């Protein structure tokens, strides 16, 4: 259980169990105290003598007494007399001096051990070592204990940096895990002080650096790892460097993170907390609920609320002429209900087959939010209403939807001051009730509770095409696939997919994001986004858009247990649409299914993970792939760049009058001839040719 692992971590860090040194010192002191109070030895005390148990003479048979005496004599003849502690005379000054010396020696040993333990690093005690990057902390004092933070592996990578900045913008505390402290300091040097940002050093390819102590104070993780590519210093060939291969990072490295975090990350489980529990509250509690019918607008519908059999009973008659509705509501709460930690409302009701609507009012705005629900006649049932599915209502016409209303955020959910249930002849926007116009009705409410659903403990960012690559069984099938599947450099698609499966089998709550080809074009332009499943689409996506989805997945229970592919929409009207809008993305997330339920949506079940093909592509085959029209089209969209494992690497040389020009240089010595930008920021110090 998590609490067991927590206890073990606390024990290693020395916060819950006394250190060995303290035990030794205490034992030495107890020994000295013990010998100080022992009286002098008596002459007739001998350990080698076995004494019979005293028994009343009247109860001891003659033959039993004889047997005891014989056993005593036999034992006394076998046991050799030896020195007993009581034979030492502790009143003798010489004996006292020897005893004191022994006790002092034991105490001294304990003090030496204590000093040695204090000087050890975290690998011995489990205590965090002082960060070598203390100078780059943002908004955190040195030594400040971190709590409720989100850890980001691969924080100094291009995608990881965008994720860190997005999380900070959303008000989260972030801990970045990095291999190189100097690179982290340089990467985040321009960040202004704000929400907490700190770093911890770790190399995911070395399992002994990925310890449970790394996750102290971490509530969730983002894994945005990837192999490191560059030119081999000896051969000049382009490929993985420093041993950071796809297998070492995307599979083994991801496995190290997941296996180490399994018993340490806070559990993510569903919790149900009653708001109104009519079965366990006095009948007077029903007085906070009252009916509100269409008589306020000239109608003739009527209803009443009372307490029957441990339930709140709401019953009445809806008359279609006039307003055509009945409702019951709570009194306005002086202190708003705190539902910020919840993901939805759970109703336990006994219905009549009618369709009702549950409405929430906020103290901070006039906008109300509504969620319809159906009931079964004569059955007590539980109905879950997720906050993401509540429809914002117009402030002018309560029956009409407000399409500009944002979904209920955590801030909104902390300002709930009223709830009501409505039965009406209308649905939304004047449309009729799909279950028909109600007449007589009766709804019994046993309880109204807030529900916190499991959220992802880990969000893993991998790559599109990993699943379709895993479904390939023959070389002929591979030849008919898209270019990235044909190339599959260093088996990256296989290793990323194996890393995904380690997460799925870990028992942790998760979300997996599979971006399509990464692009650096049009970073400030809004695009509609496609969020789909089944790994059947290709395209491009920016790192900022990936970061926006990552942040949303961490806070949305509707992303839990789901794997999704992400790209910029290629439809004609996609340009200018705010695809990263929270409302839009939430709507797409809700439409996805959990990995375990893919077959219910007509999606193929996830294939098994396999190792990369034994026979890599020949140079000729690679050239054929690079000449593919689809690859050429991508190069036209991304001029001067090459796609390596989904990463766009700028490569360009600028010429003037036939001569290469270094960025920022000017033949006349005046203003720079041009400025090179990367990820929206000017770059300096670039050589004339950048490979």
UniProtKB/TrEMBL annotation:
Q: InterPro entries attached here?
A: Galactose-bd-like_sf, NAD(P)-bd_dom, NAD(P)-bd_dom_sf, NADH-UbQ_OxRdtase-assoc_prot30
What highest taxon heads this organism's lineage?
Eukaryota
Q: Where is the NAD(P)-binding domain?
A: 154-230, 457-555
NADH:ubiquinone oxidoreductase intermediate-associated protein domain residues are 282-443
Region (Disordered) residue ranges read 657-691
Please report the name of this protein according to its UniProt entry: NADH:ubiquinone oxidoreductase intermediate-associated protein 30 domain-containing protein
